[in-house]
Amino acid sequence: MAIVSSNNDRNNSNLPFRKSRVLAASALPEDVKPPKEDGLRPKTLDDYIGQSALKEVLGIAVKAAIGRGDPLDHVLLYGPPGLGKTTMAFVLAEELGVRCRITSAPALERPRDIVGLLLNLQPREVLFVDEIHRLTRVAEELLYPAMEDGRLDLTVGKGITARTRALDLPPFTLVGATTRAGALSSALRDRFGFTQRLDFYDLKDLKAIVQRAAELLHLPLTAAAAFEIARRCRGTPRIANRLLRRVRDFATVHAREDLIDEVLVDEALKLLNVDKSGLDAIDRRLLEFILRAHGGGPVGLDTLAAALGEDSATLEAVVEPFLLQKGFLQRTPRGRVVTGAARIHLGWQEE
Ligand code: ADE
Hints:
By secondary structure, the protein is an alpha/beta fold. The chain has helices at about 20-25, 50-70, 85-95, 110-120, 135-150, 185-190, 205-215, 225-230, 235-255, 260-270, 280-295, 300-310, 310-325, 340-345; strands spanning about 75-80, 100-105, 125-130, 150-155, 165-170, 175-180, 195, 330, 335-340.
């Protein structure tokens, strides 16, 4: 049973808890809009390029939920950053014809934060919780009955004056996102009706995403230029769109906006230290540290993190997945090992 108590709880006759900052904040329009930076996000499943297995599964589930008038079952999305987890939450809400409320686990530290959010939901709305592996135990325990039975269990007051109250919630869909599915408690994982992994995008889909973005930004981008960005964006649409914007800046400054071709893309990306395979400075530092200081490995994750001045969870969830997928790095029981392909790519070895 979750504990929600403060002196103010007892002073408010209408609410079983104090009206919290989040309760007030969640009424603001910012809370229900996708993050501002990206006008390029697809709005519907049809617009969403790639992740075909994910789209198929969720497309069927959405149709069935609409047909029955039910909320969509809870969805857990996991995978490296930038692959479209937040975007998918907004797409699902759009397809269901409801609003998407957006928050992240670190913002739900106090019980009243999550209570406020849940009590503010309208029927069948989507509640998107980013970094869901970071929920506190108390927050998780408030979520379990909410997800399972549409019930919020509150304990009001303290000590012998404590009373429990169960409040009915409207049916809703929790979309949880994480880069670290393994860090979720199994109790929380079990409460999702769908657990879906997002994979790195292939070149064909990335090229299509870049071309769609170029069209929305009215950029005269050649097919070869779109392909060049696709090749160098670490399999990640968010990076593809970011690179496209940097290429546009470069074209503007050099008065070359009439035609953006692959030569211009190459010049712009070289300036950004993004190499032909899409590796950036931190990727190369990681590989070169293992080669230089450890003869290619194996090296433990904590040693790597300390040497690079990065947090090990970030290295593991953000930096390594692409290097593993490219076949530049291997994980072994004794640590990380740089591959022959990486040696060739970095010029440490002849082809
Ligand atoms: N922009 C970012 N991600 C996208 C996707 N998956 N499909 C279309 N446009 C995108």
